[in-house]
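Sample entry was shown:
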Amino acid sequence: MSSFAPARGGLLRRLLGPVVDPAVFDFWLGLLNRSWTWDRPLARVLERRVESADAVTLVLKPNRHWRGFRAGQHLNVGAEIDGRRVTRSYSLSDRPRADGRIAITVKRVEGGKLSNHLCDRVREGEMLSIDAAYGDLHWPVAGEAAGLFLAAGSGITPLMSLTRAWAAAGAPGALTLVYWARSAEQLCFAQELQALAQAQPRFRLHLMLTQDAQAPAARINADQLVSLLGPSEGWQHLQVLACGPGGFVDTARQLLAPRVQRFQAEAFSPAAPIALDEVRPVTVELRRSGRSLTLSSGESLLSALEAQGLRPPSGCRMGICHSCVCTKHEGQVQNLHTGEREAEPGSQLRLCVSRACGDLSLDL
């Protein structure tokens, strides 16, 4: 039993709902079983395995409040660190399984508070908070057209989920995976991918090591893709999924999107930031809390609010998961990725990728 029965809904939950404080309920039931909650998804760490020189895979067992995922999606994961809950977004690296287990593969990064905590300190048996899966990266018509997956660094994780789902479905159609990493020690899933390439004739694997001592591979470019895929005139049948840093994704889009049947991409870091006009102090009114703050217009609203000691909900910090969305009552903001400005009253903004262009009023 992984969660308390009333949290499943039905008559008992409807009767108790108006008088139950979920936080109090979770505290007392957690003394009996840490995975029992009123309605909050949690996951127990079942297994921890080293995946590469700087990454680990955590196999998790969610409680019954978690509603599953589709291969290629992400979820927000949270843990208590030094008395404060920290939440970040991670891709699910395994396919959906009948036993309900899920996996995330986390890379150690400089200054990454939660990532480094998960890599270095979390052990089997510990509980993590999780949220609903999200994300639109998927292979909708596998088998009808050849698939081409392009992964750079941590971008391999959602594409590994999709590759495993493709293999479990009987390899419907041809699939090519091109995977860039700095060195062999930083490759994740290398043995599994190489074994799949040997066993499955429909799967082609290219491992591109950009800092290899003997024969360093180039970063993604047109000549390289032609050597791997053949002349661009033959690319029109490809369905391409790309994931990696913003610059990698932008280059892949420029080279392939006009020439292929379908192109999807997700970046786990922004491309080059937009050029900002004058940076100055602005006044941000927080209507719900009744506070008024002076913030810099030169950084994201999320970072500026956190610097003032506030902790708005957040996850990916890249504008993907929408955990930090809030209502803007008045004022103009600018998207730090696209440069687009928005001034409509009552609109929704993502704090992590929006900056204030002037004074604002937010529903916080």
